[in-house]
Structure formats: C-alpha cells, structure tokens
Amino acid sequence: MTETASRDLFPGALEMMILESLRRQPAHGYALVQHIQQRSKNLLQVEEGSLYPALQRLLKARLVKAEWGVSSTNRRVRTYQITASGLRHLEQQISSFERMFEGIALVLDPTKSPAS
Amino acid sequence: MNWIPDIFRRRKVYNDLAEEMRLHIEEHAMHLMGQGMSRKEAEQTARRAFGNRTLLEERSREVWQWPTLESIWADVRYAVRQFRKSPGFTFTVLVSLALGLGANTTIFTFVNALLFLPPPVKQPSRLVEVMPRDAKASGIESFLPLSYPGYSNLRDQNHTLSGFAAFDGDPGPVSWRNSGQGTLLHGQLVSGNFFSVAGIEPFLGRAFAPDEDRAGAARPVIVVSYSFWKQQLGADRSIIGHALTLNGTSYTIVGVAPSSFTGVLIGTNPDFWAPLAMAPVFTQDAQRLTNESGFWLFGLGRLKPEASKAQAQADLTVLTRGLHRPDGDDVRDAAVYPVDLVPGPYRGYVAAFTGLLMAVVALVLVIACANAANLLLARAITRRRELAVRSSLGATRFRIVRQMLTESVLLAVAGGAAGILLTRWSIPLLLSLKPANIPLTIEAPLDWRVFSFALVLSLCVGILFGIVPAWRTPRFELMSALKDEAQLAGPRRSWLRDSIVSLQIAVCLVLLIGAGLCVRSLFNARSIDPGFSTHNVVLAQLDPESLGYSKQQQHIFYQQLLDRVRALPGIDSVSLTSSLPLGTQRLSQPATIDGFTPPPGQPGVFVQTAYVAPGFFSTMGVPILDGHDLSSIAPHPGLSQVVVNEAMAKRFWPGKNPVGQHFKIMDTAMETVGVVKTGKYRSLNEDPQPFMYRPFDYTSQAYLVAHSPSDAQAALDEISRAVRELDPNVVPTDMESIKQYMALPLFAAHTTGVLLAAFGAVALLLATIGLSGVVSYSVSQRTNEIGVRMALGADRLDVVRLILKQGMRLTLIGILCGLVLSFAATRVLSGLLYGIKPGDPVTFAAVSMFLAAVALVSCYLPARRAASVDPMKSLRAE
Fold first, then answer.
1. How far is Cα B575 from Cα B611, in angstroms, rounded to an integer?
2. What is the SS3 assignment for B460?
3. Which residues, at least 6 apart from B559, have a Cβ–Cβ distance to it below 8 Å?
4. B115 within 8 A of B340, measured Cβ to Cβ
5. Is the pLDDT of residue A2 over 50?
6. I want to staple B264 with a disulfide (CB 3.0 to 4.6 A). Which of B119, B296, B568, B749 is the partner?
7. B441 and B127 in contact (C-beta within 8 Å)?
8. How far is CA B94 from CA A83, B83, B416, B427, B622, in A?
9. A-contacting residues in B 382-421 (Cβ below 8 Å)
10. CB of B17 within 8 Å of any CB in chain A?
11. Buried b vs exposed e over B515-531: b needs ≥16 C-beta within 10 Å?
12. How many whole angstroms separate alpha carbon B562 and alpha carbon B182?
C-alpha cells in the first residue's frame, strides 16, 4: 500500500506531528495542516489530504477524539482533541523517536560519539 | 472487540469523512480567495493541494475495514456486475470450465474410490495387509495369498501385530434355499478375530468368537451384512438366532454388520461372513484348512502401538522364510501394505490406467483453460478504458491485477461447481460401462476428497488462466487508452492469443488421435475372430458339487440336465465345459510328447486345457478341421481321447497327420482324435496358442453352453427353469448370452474407446469454441479495416478469404505441433491397442484432416459475418 503523500516521512511521523499539534490545542483538519506547515517552515511538503487517513487511524486507536462544531471564523468544522492515551502514546513515540534520531546522528557523524 | 460497533458506525464514519474533506477543500479555497484569487483558480489550487481525494478517502475508509477481506468482497461484487454485463462471455467461459473441471472431477472420483478411499475400518492407518512375496518373480505374479497353515503360523508367532486376521480373497457364490427356491448369495470366509481386528462393532448381535475359526471347533454361524439384512431379511431385529440354509447346511445368524462395513476389498460386498473353520463345508474341500499349498487367504493385521510397518515387515519376513524352508525353491518374503480397498500389489495397475485417464482429462482441462484465458485476454483489451479509469483514480497495478484474478478465480470456482453437478450425472454413466458380468460393485462417492480436489483444481485453474491476461492488462499507455486510440492503432494481433489457439488445436489433435486409435482398436477387437461363435450361444455356470452332491449324483444331474435342455424349444444343441475361452479360469497340463524336451524341472510341456462334453465344438461354433469330436465312449480302451487345436498340431507334429498321435499327460496315455481351429484363449490379441480339449467327467463345476438361434433371454429363462425343476437348490450363475460374455474380454478396449472418444468430443467442442471466439473477436476488431478494404474495392470473397487465412494459419500451426506431440504421446496407448500401431499414419492423417475441416467451418461463420460488414456504417462509426 503506497502512501503517496507521506512517502518522504518515516511511518508514524505524520501521526506523531498531528498528536503533538493537538497536544498544544485542539484543531480541525485544515488548521492542522496549516499548523504543521507553518511550524516546519514549509520544509515538509505534506499533501493536505494525506492527513485524513492518519487521522482515521488515530481515531480508530482512540488516541484522538473528534467532534463537529463551529470554528472561530464561523465555519462548520470537525475538531480533533487528543485523549489521555493519545498523550501517553505521544510521549512514548517522542522518546523512541529521539533515541532513533540520536542513533542516526551518531552513525552519520561519529566524531560526536561519546565513546570516542 | 472494537470492530463490532465499528461495523454499525461505519456509515456515519464515512459520511463524516466525506463531509470533512469537502469542507477542508472549501476552507482552503475561501482562504485563497481571501488572498485575491478568482473562485475557479482558488478551487483548483485547493483541490490540487489536497491530493487524490478518491484515493485518500478510500485509504481512510480502509482504516475501518478488514482491509483485504472487505476489498476482496468488493472485488467479488464488482466482478459479478461485470459478468452480468457480458453474459455471452461469462456463459462461454463457464461452459468451458465446467466441461474441463467436470471431466477431471469425474475421473478423480474414480481414482479416489479406487486408491484413496480408506476401507471402512477403525483406524485404517494401523491396519496392514500381509502377503507373501516371491522375490524372484516380478509384478503381480510374485504375490501369493496365504494358506491356512501359513496364516495360523504367522498369527501365532509374530511379535509386531496385536491381532492378525484372514479372509477369503475370492468369495464364491453360495446357494440360499429361501422358501423352496435357490437364491444366489456371496459369502466371505473370515477368521474369528476378523471383526475385532478390523474394529467393527456389529449393528445387532455379536461378531465371531476367536475360537470359532479353529479347525475342529467349526460352528455353522454367520454374520450378515446390513444391506442383506435390510433387503432380504426385512430388517427384522429379532433375526438373531434364526438359521439360513446355505448350500444345504443350516447356518445360525449371530450378528448383523453395521451399514458402513461392506468388506475390506473393493468390489466384494459380501452378503454374509462365515468363520474360516467352515471352509471345508463351504468349499467341499476337506483339506482346505490343512493344505499347505492351497493359497487363498488375505492377511489383515493390526500393528501393535509400538510397532511400525517396517518392523512388521521384517518380523513377518523372518517367519515366512521359516515357513518356506531356505533349501526349498520358493523362498518368500512377506510384503506388508497399508490396508486399502485395492490390495497393494494391484494398486500399480489401477494407478497406471487411471493415470492415463487423468492425463487425458488434464489435456481437456488445458484446452478449457486456454479458452478461458483467451476470452479473458480479448475482454481485457475491450476493458482498457475501464481499467485506465480505475488506475487514474488511484488503483495500483497490484489492485487491478487482483481484481482481474478475482474475476478469473470466481469464474473457475463457479465452473468447478458446475463441473461437480456434471460429475453427479457422469458417474452413473461411467459405471454403466462396466459389464454386468464382472462381479464388482464399485462405489464412487462424492466425498470431501472429491470436493477438495475440485476446489483446489478450480482455484489453481482460475489463477493460471487469469494471471496471464491480468499481468498484461496494466501494460498500456494510460492516455491513449483514455482517448480511445485503440481504433487508430489498427488491428493489434496478439501473438499470445494466437499461440494459445494453436496450443488448443495441438492438444485437441493429440486427444482426437488418441481417441481415433482407441476407437479403431475397439472395432478391430470386435472383429477379431475369437475362434468360436459370438452369436446365438447362451451360457450358465453350475456347481452341484458345492451342494454336497456325490460324484455319482453330479454325473446324474449333469446328464439329466443335458437331456432336459436339449429337449427345450429353441435350443439346437447343448454341451458342458470346465472353462470358457477368454474366461478367468485357466488350466494348463504338462504334456510329454516325443521329440520335445520339457524345460528343466518340469514334468512336461505345459499346454492349456479344457474339459468338454461331446457337442461342445458344434455348440460353440468351433470348426473341426480334421478327425472328429470327443465321443462319450473311449474308442480305444486304456487311451484317453483328446482334441487339439491347429496351433498344437503344427507345433508338435509338423508335417504329420495330427489325428491318431499318442502322447502322455502326467501318466495318462492320450490319443488325438480331432483337430479344431485355433481360437483365442487368454486374450484377444494373443498369438496362436496350443490348446487341448479332454473329455468332461461330469463332476465339479461347469459351464453349460447351448446354441439357441432365437431370443437369448427366453433360452436362459428356459434353462433356469430346467435347472430348478431338477433341483431347486442349484442356482445357475453368470447366466448370459455369449454377446454379454464378450463384454469382459472387450472391457479394456471398450472403456478406453468410449472414454477417449467422449473426451475427444469435448476437446473438439472446446477447441472449436476457442478458435471461432478468437476469429470472431478479431473480426470485431478489424471492422474498420474491413470497411476500408471494401470501400477500396475488395469483394465479399476477399474478406472471407482474409479471415479464413488467419484462422487456418493458426489451425495448421496447431496441427503440425499436435502431430509431433501425438507421435510421442500415443506410445502410452500401445499396450491397449488391438491390431493398430500407436503411430498409425491413416489415423493421424484422417484425424488431422477432420480437425482442419472442423476448424474451417468454425472460422467460416465469423468470416461470413465479416463479409457482411457495411463499409459506410463501419467507417461512420469512427
């Protein structure tokens, strides 16, 4: 199954970014996209639609919950909110991501290795 | 389990999702419009930024689905919709596959019945069949049943079997006196432990006690079969303890076998079982249980829990070798087989014959698959647009291939189901090929093995004929397909489809040539002169000896019977013989003839022999060439008369007058009194064999032969009545006309002839469908081209020629390949053919021409349609 949109991201990266955004504040799909693009300074060119399969996965795993409402600009929106288990999951993901990132960094630049 | 509420929530989830995505794009567009874009531009930009909405929606939905299962279900529903849209295509593929798969399932049902069906015993895997085997001989000849002393020795001495039973391998007919009339029953003699070793619990009453088979402890008790109890004894539950009079002796019924148990050998469904110790009474052979060289028992052993088959084999071999002293000439090993309905030594032969049939139906299936694959290929091209749309909507290549495979597998499974329906109808048809006089009842049930075979074969076939078109389909230019450029690209001839058609023709030719050879062989076999008349003769087997008649009584019985039958209206002449030519009973006797040294260690040159009463030759229509018939009184006291056949006369007295020659059989001095024409004695395709006829002594069992120019059945009824009037207990068996009798020696030729002709016809039908399908398809693809040609002045004949040329080119390639294949393939038939060589050029040429003619006709119809194309219409259609 090819994820055309998140081809350049590692699996789970998009979910992690969504959860992190939602931890700061609940948002609807469009706002989430804007937020992620702004925060990444447009470095991550995420296809907007690819957010939705990821959101469905999170919904299914009950890491987020969704609710129809009205936005500040008076538009009908479906707002997502992170759940308690979503928060726990995010923490785990971030720490394992950091470990992985550290590992990759060490391999790429051995001079920083603490052992040497 | 989260998925249960998920199923019910799903519709809402999907609606939410769609709405959410719509709003997202809308919001983005509004945002862009706020930055000064036009509405149209903003909407387009928003949509582009969003990505493939349909695909994303599908991916999002999949999160909530059992992904593969549900999308497969969607594929199936889609496939069914596609089939409904093209019923002609679907019907043709289904019929092809149903014929191909049905033929395979039918033959497999027989293979299953003969080779795979376990005997109806408890834990068949722990049961073994035991047979002594002569390591020096080969094939079936090397196997010998057990003698009773041999059996009891193995039973008492072995260390590896928890129980060792034995049964009579060739149950003989028994006359049951039932309210004043004789009825013929089949009984099997079994050891006392037979039922306990086989693990059969009686349905009523009890099985035999182990001591009921000990010699001297013989008690006339029987266990009857369930079907006999139900049909002949009125399913009477109080029957236990009642007696039946069998061959004049009263036997007490002690039990009824369960309905599932019909014996451990295929074909022999006994009406009752009796203890081995009754054998001397049953067979009128007092030495039956003590004779060490009377081999008549099959051994059936249950392995001890710790013993393996190999251990049992080693154990029993040691014992068998001890039984036949090593200094003797007949050192034997024991062969241990898993217990099967067809006993171990015979399985090879059954497997070879059924294997040939499986190969034939496999070829039929190849043709059927080729049809299906070809139709799918043609269809795949007409579906280019649809597939292009699907792939532009985000379907991956894998997804499209899977969709195509779903369709082909679905077709194959439906074809397989239809094939099973065909099988239910074809099995009784095939069983009716078995001549009635072969005393075998074969049950060929459609059990789980047959169903699994059909299912697995269908799935494989579906994948096989689906994979080629499926793999080819996504290889097209998306844009050109969407723009419908197929028309502009001109007629695309597919080498793949062409070669599939040629392959079909080739395989079809192989089958047709095989069928042609077998059918001609059948006609040859029918026209072989067996050396006796095959018309106007009726036969009946009699065995007064088994009723305990003394020699004197038998003599009187036979003489009276001959007189009575001779006096019957519609019967010209009557005689008796100990055995029938081409029958199953064979006798050879050692002749000591001056000038001929017998092979070392043998008392004489063995010559096949029959004992016949006077009048045998005239009744059977065997011409007497020289001398005269055997007479009832020996012309020379101290000399026994003998009639020899021409082959014997030529072999032993070449150049001399064979009549009046003297020789010896064992110690009896013989004088030849006549020479008869050489016939066929063992098989229809044997070379001339020496044969001699000695005077019948009117004792033991015999065949009555009667010449009756009128209705055979009426004559048989008269004979039956005459026998009954003499003694109602004597039941004539195997009453039939000589024509019916000849079904037995012709059985193999007849079966292969009929089966191969039937499968050849199916193959021809399928190949015709395939060929005309491909030609019609190419006509429909070339409509434009034909229109242009006609507009430029081609006439109808040119068009017909154009189309025929294409079809016939494929046919000729196929026929050439088929001829080469046939030369190789028909070799396997050589053992089955009468009077025709496997590479018979006449058959090869005739069948090839026939196939070419059929192909021509099947191409002509689409060609004529092509010629009726209206050039204006076809050009305007563009």
1. 11
2. helix
3. B698
4. yes
5. no
6. B119
7. no
8. 55, 11, 9, 21, 55
9. 396
10. yes
11. bbbbbbbbebbeebebb
12. 20
pLDDT at B171 exceeding the cut of 90: no
Q: Which of B51, B57, B63 sits opposite A47 (nearest CB)?
A: B51
CA distance B173 to B818: 50
pLDDT(B668) > 90: no
Report yes or no: B470 and B407 within 8 Å, Cβ to Cβ.
no
The secondary structure of B1-66 as a DSSP string is -THHHHHHHHHHHHHHHHHHHHHHHHHHHHHHHHTT--HHHHHHHHHHHH--HHHHHHHHHHHTS-
Q: Which residue type is seen at B588?
A: S
Asked if the Cβ–Cβ distance from B20 to A50 is below 8 Å, we say no
pLDDT of residue B684: 83
Q: Where are the alpha helices (DSSP H) in B732-795?
A: 738-741, 747-781, 783-791
Q: Which residues contact B839 (CB under 8 A, 6 or more apart)?
A: B823, B826
Query: How do strand B605-612 and strand B691-695 relate by DSSP bridges?
Result: parallel
pLDDT in tens, B275-298: 888 887 777 677 778 777 677 888
Please, which residues 188-227 of chain B have a Cβ atom closer than 8 Å to chain A? none
Q: Give B838→chain A minimum CA distance, Å.
A: 56
Closest CA to B694 of B608, B620, B602, B622: B608
| Residue B65 exposed, middle or buried by CB count within 10 Å (0-12, 13-18, 19+) | middle
Burial class, B640, CB count within 10 angstroms (exposed 0-12 / middle 13-18 / buried 19+): middle
What's the start-to-end Cα distance of chain B, in Å?
58
From B2, B27, B60, residue closest to A56, measured CB to CB: B60
Cβ of A29 within 8 Å of Cβ of B20? The answer is yes
Strands A76-82 and B249-256, by their bridges, are: unpaired
Looking only at the bridges linking them, the beta strands covering B668-676 and B640-645 are: parallel
Gap between the Cα atoms of B710 and A84, Å rounded = 102
Q: Which residues of chain A are within 8 Å of residue B2 when distances are taken between CB atoms?
A: 60
The pLDDT score that the predictor gives to residue B490 is 42
The answer to whether B716 and B540 have CB atoms below 8 angstroms apart is yes
Please tell me which residue, B819 or B87, carries the higher pLDDT value.
B819
How many Å lie between the alpha carbon of B30 and the closest alpha carbon of chain A?
11
Q: With beta carbons less than 8 A apart as the criterion, state whether B29 and B39 touch.
A: yes
Other CB atoms within 10 Å distance of the CB of residue B790: 21
Asked if A4 reaches chain B (Cβ–Cβ under 8 Å), the answer is yes
Flag if A49 and B21 touch (Cβ within 8 Å). yes
Please tell me whether the overall predicted TM-score, pTM, comes out greater than 0.80 for this model. no
Nearest by CB to residue A30, choosing from B24, B60, B62, is B24
11-50 of A, contacting B, C-beta below 8 A: 28-30, 33, 47-50
Residue with tokens 């006797």: B589
Smallest CA-to-CA distance from B367 within B560, B164, B507 is with: B507
Which one-letter amino acid corresponds to residue B850?
A: F
Domains of chain A: 3-108 (1.10.10.10)
DSSP B195-223: HHHHT---SEE----GGGGSTT----EEE
Enter the tokens of residue B171: 């149950």
Name the 3-class secondary structure at B151.
Answer: helix
Report the C-alpha gap between B635 and B613 in whole angstroms: 15
Contact between residue B412 and residue B469 where contact means Cβ atoms under 8 Å apart: no
User: What is the interface pTM, i.e. ipTM, of the complex?
Assistant: 0.84
How many other C-beta atoms lie within 10 A of the C-beta of residue A87? 14
What pLDDT score was predicted for residue B777?
79
Q: Residue B337 in contact with residue B129, Cβ under 8 Å?
A: yes
DSSP3 helix / strand / coil % (chain B, rounded to 5): 55, 15, 30
